Amino acid sequence: MIVFLLLALAQAEVICDYDEPCLKACTDTVCEYYWNIENRFSQTWRTTDFGENRSYPKGALRDFPIQWNKTKNNFDIIQEGINVDVNEVIDENGNVRDPLDDLENLLLLDGQRMRKVITINGQIPGPNIIVNKGALVKIHVKSTMHEESFTLHWHGLHQLDNYWNDGAAMVSQCPIDAHNEFTYVMRAENSGTHWYHSHYIIQRADGLHGAFIILEEDEKDEEISWMPLVVTDWWNTDSTFLAGNDPYRYGNTLGKRMTGSGLKACRTDEKSFMTGVKMSTFCVDSIVANGRGQYRTNEDEFEFSVLEEYRVSKTTTRIQLKTIHAGFEHPILVRAVDGRKLTITAQDGRRVLPEEGDGIFMGVGETLNIEVDFPLEEEWIELIAEVMFEGIGKKSEYHEKPYVKITFSRDASVSQFEIKKQLVAAYPESNVVEPFSFHTENEVSEKVLLNCPAKTIGDMSCKTVVDFKRDPKYESRFANPPPSIEEKPDRVIDVNMNFAIGPAINGLEFKYPETPFFFGVENTEKTQCTAAMIADGGHCTQIIEVKKGELVEFRVTAAEHLENMARRWQWTYHGIHLHGYEFVVTDIGFGVANQTTGFIEQINPVIHCKDDQIKCNRAKFDDQMLENIRSDRDDHILKNTVIVPAMGYVVFRLRANNPGVWPFHCHQLFHNYEGMAVALFVKDEEENKPFSYLPKEMPRCHNYHPKDIAINEEPILRTNSMNKTQFSPLLFALTVFLFHYIY
Questions:
Q1: HEC string of 266-331?
Q2: Any long-range contacts for 49-56 (C-beta under 8 Å, 24+ apart)?
Q3: Distance CA 229, CA 4 (A)
Q4: What is the mean pLDDT of residues 242-254?
Q5: What is the DSSP letter of 725?
Q6: pLDDT of 494-520, one tens digit each?
Q7: pTM
Q8: What is the secondary structure of 411-432 as a DSSP string?
Q9: Chain Cα centroid distance, residue 520
């Protein structure tokens, strides 16, 4: 009996099988997930009770299109070209099967019809992964999509010595084809709020993303109610349509019309602006939070949808949202409806000293722990996640913003520090929230915005990324101490991002190699960056090479030449993400704003276009000026995604201790998709990692089969071949000992 008990204890904790909800956190040392990646459509009802007297068997899992009937105040079910009344649907017990009694199985998103999406086990966003630091995480993915390939990138996980599981298509792996399977294996080595998402074309915009939370041991004892919150900007059209409706590709009408249908590539007068800078070429339809939202029509009426409301205990006094911006293009503003303060306590997985403000700017790809007080005398509080812009159109006139409410209320049945969700039907009645104004009647506003890439927005002051400080209580959690500002870097790399030739870095649009870097950088077939391309721009596989162990400082700008005023509306912000690393952000500089209007009108004086080139493919820093204004603080925070201000810059540094070819790109999907990326090659001259080993189970593409070149697999990767009965070596040894002792 003891032996069998130990064998049972030694198994991995399986959180969910294919098509099951993955609802619980994993508390074991080995955590396994089985995920089905599939296409679904919005505004559908998933049921097993609709099938009697039909051509398919009763009990089959089916999705049925539904449409809201305003007259009946209920749904009509659309099936096989026949409009079927909901009262005709009878379950096996003879009861009417009403979709409104089955909110969990309504896939509505923002209430718009028949939008193609990608789900994991039927969910958008995908299942939350919540594990303890140090756990071995195994994620078995099976595709039932008919056409599309995909990969999953584990955003924020360093993947130290585990490069081949990073999930970047055509960099560290071939895409996983339709009707194929693969197992990702990784160690939960760095704690905090992270996430995962598709890293294949702009597929992330279809909902293939989710939260990845890694908990420290002492977090179990923290007396706070917390939950993951995944927010995203959302469109009524899928990624294929958005790609075909490329707003950066002009027709032969001199830019007056965009190609494609023009539904989402709207006129400049309708686009969102902040500090006079255009935020995106797209116009956003909705904001969704944890897969729930509500589209608002031009008449200020909402589509029918389903929202999540959150229940907390009667004794809750503070709530923490582990917030992830998993979106496409637009930054998002998080605020409280009643104006109460919000506090940031962590950025990109790392604890920071708390900073309090009236609203929080979130760039695409960033993660923030946001806390809000919930006084005991209050029964409910309401937050808003909305599109972040100061106004709309060239004059920045105010316009209603897409938003979603996030509501918390008290419930005596909820345990202390627990948060339960409740699905509620959101009917089409108008319920417009009072807009957030960036301007006040007073000469000086007391409102503060947190994490924004500007000195001020409207009349409000900003606390930027360099105004935050690391929390010294958690310094021991760093595997290696962050680089000091006093150390002289071994290498300084200038990077400029703009649209002079299209979305590019240093005037070069990234072209992926024909295959991932299975054979190393030198032996992989790729498009070389020629001298002519470097001078005038072009498409090539731009690689920045550094050596393992070097201290590298990046100086990243988003600069345009001032004389190139024809490109004035292409100035914008960029969210830079680096795979495999976190970095210390030491400096930030902003474009020069007009003192009257607040609009950015000039490039920051620290930077200029190299050789005074009109395209400004490359930028140059004034080293002395930068040195004079540089802070000597040594408690700057670490990030893996940072927003580069329009016509400004950020400076960050890292220790190149993780060999591999790591994507370094803008996290706005269309910027990245069209070429705003480079590859950072951290070269290991001693052990040739990661190219000295390769998992045999990697997907194949073109004429390359990883199994033919796999050698010297690392221990963490050998777990790819394990099944659901993962054994702990210690428990296995103890089992063998007891077996011999007893028998």
A1: CCHHHCEEECCEECCCCCCCEEEECCEECCECCCCCECCEEEEEEEECCCCCEEEEEEEECCCCCC
A2: 49/89, 49/90, 49/91, 49/92, 49/97, 50/77, 50/79, 50/89, 50/97, 52/90
A3: 40
A4: 59
A5: -
A6: 999 998 888 999 999 999 998 999 989
A7: 0.92
A8: -TTSPTT-EEEEEEEE-SS--P
A9: 28
